[in-house]
Amino acid sequence: MARRKSQTFSVPIRLEAGVRKKKTFYLNLNQYNKWHFQDKNQLKKLFKITILKDVRKLRPVKACHVIYTIFYPTNRKFDLDNIGSVTCKFTNDVLTECGIIEDDNYTCIKEVTYKFGGVDKENPRAEVTIKEVE
Q: Are strands 14-17 and 6-12 parallel, antiparallel or unpaired?
C-alpha cells in the first residue's frame, strides 16, 4: 500500500480590515455571529487573498482528514471550536474554489480535528494539515 502524504500550510486567526479605519477581527464563532454581513464578506475575501499563494502550491486530494493546530497570541483560555469553526469554514471554501478538494462535504473531508499548538504572540495562526485518506 502506498503511503499517503500530508500537506501543511498556515492560515490567520485574526485579520485587520476596514475602509476608513482598520479594525482587528478575531476569527471566532462568538465574534462571527455579531459581525455585519458586509464585514463577513470582506473578511472572507481578505482571508482568501491571505492564504491563496500557499493553497495554490497544494496538490489535489480525493478524500482527507484536516487537522487545525491553533497557536493563540496569549495564555488566555479559549474554546478550540470557536476559532476552529470559522477558520475551518473559510479555509474549506478556499480549498474548494482552488480545486484542492472537490467539495467540503463529508465525502471529501472525512474528519476534522482541532488541536492547541501553544502560544505565539508574534504569529498567532492555525497550522492546517491535510492528510489524504482512502
A: unpaired
**What is the third-level CATH fold of 6-132?**
60s Ribosomal Protein L30; Chain: A; (3.30.1330)
Cα–Cα distance list, 89 to 47, 61, 112 (Å) = 11, 18, 11
CB atoms within 10 A of CB 82: 18
Instruction: Give the Cα separation of 86 and 83 in Å (integer).
Output: 6
Report yes or no: 27 and 13 within 8 Å, Cβ to Cβ.
yes
What are the pLDDT digits (tens) for 71-118?
Answer: 999 999 999 999 999 999 999 999 999 999 999 999 999 999 999 999
pTM: 0.91
Give the separation between CA 132 and CA 109, rounded to whole angstroms.
Answer: 9
